[in-house]
Amino acid sequence: MMSRMSTIFIIFICILQTLAGCISYPDTGNEVRMELPSHSDTDCIIEYNGYTVSYDEAALIPAWVAYELTAEEANGTIGRSGKNFRPDDKVKVIQADNYDYRGSGWSRGHMAPAGDFKWNDDAMWDTFFYTNCCPQDEKLNKGSWNVLENKVRTWAQQFGSIFVVTGPIVGQNQSGKIGTHQITVPDAFFKALLVYKDKAYHGIAFLIFNNPTTQRLPESYLSINELEKLSGLDFFPSLDNTIEENVEDEVDLKFWNIR
After folding, report:
1. pLDDT at site 30
2. What are phi and psi of 43, to 5 degrees?
3. Nearest to 20 by CA among 47, 42, 52, 48
4. Is this model's pTM higher than 0.85 or not?
5. Active site residue ranges
């Protein structure tokens, strides 16, 4: 049990981080957060109902979002009717607003998709913060990206649970920025996925370009190690080092049923 002084220290740290602009909660237990990429104490980490965001204060979009999706959660029934994006007033950082997207030609792309949070109304509402949003090609949002999101839910149901990390690749920022706040338009989007099945871990990643061209899953998959080189992120660092490299360097297409 934590001492009174330890509790006061944790509260003090939370206050300092909130004043600095971000909300972050120190890990006070022994639970391993398998889904979280490596991050530093200076990163803007925000905890929502069911998922974590690392917010890029320069680009004004999430650097990544991470969560575990279980089979039960993937079978949720909560609807998204009436829910719209809005800034998160609890986080004192610059964010997009409706006027940035209005007339921009870009859709509001969830990084943590609302469809993965049908298990709880508050959790789904939390996916509609602009801290979880990127400018995304509308045809991509409704097409290849939607296909991949649905596939992730299928895998969660099939395997029992799946660890998900999603985010943008700013790249060369070929499409520039939008709105008064100058929101960065990414060149592409990624997902890094990990499941534990039959006493073994299995990993795969996907990279889909932010344009209307249709990309099928067999055309967009890559290894997690390949995605790490492109993104500069270290995914699933909680994996034991003796198995991490094999899991992140190999893709078993038969396991994932990708043809």
Report:
1. 53
2. -70, 150
3. 42
4. yes
5. 110
